[in-house]
Amino acid sequence: MNDWGVQVRVNSWSNAAEAYVYMGKAESFTMKAYGTRGSASTDMDGTRFTLTPDGKITGQWTQEHRPR
């Protein structure tokens, strides 16, 4: 994952998290995890992000976008 930024908000009372994921002005999206995991993939470099309700976010390149 190159040059991605993330802002995460967590609400522990309702077991929920929201994450704003961005790559400069090129691409951005919001992920929501309300009681269960949320996931999304980027168009720019094929990174797949997963967000848990406690605010943990992970990212992984998909097979076809991994560096060689």
Write structural notes for this entry:
The protein has 68 residues and is mainly β. The chain contains no helices and 6 strands. The strands form 2 sheets. Strands 1-2-3 form a 3-stranded antiparallel beta sheet, with no helix packed on it. Strand 1 and strand 2 form a beta hairpin. The protein is globular. It starts with a strand and ends in a 7-residue tail after the last strand. The model has no long low-confidence stretch (mean pLDDT 87).
What is the C-alpha radius of gyration, as a whole number of Å?
A: 12 Å
* Strand arrangement in the largest pleated sheet: 1-2-3
Q: Which runs of at least 5 residues are low in confidence (pLDDT < 50)?
A: none
**What is the N-to-C order of secondary-structure elements (H for helix, E for strand)?**
EEEEEE
- Sheet-strand content, in percent, reads over 45%
Largest sheet: 3 strands, antiparallel
Helix count, DSSP H or I runs of 4 or more residues:
0
Specify the overall morphology: globular
Tag the structure with descriptive keywords:
68 residues, mainly beta, three-stranded antiparallel sheet, 6 strands
Concise summary:
The protein is mostly beta strands and 68 residues long. It has no helices and six strands. The mean pLDDT is 87.
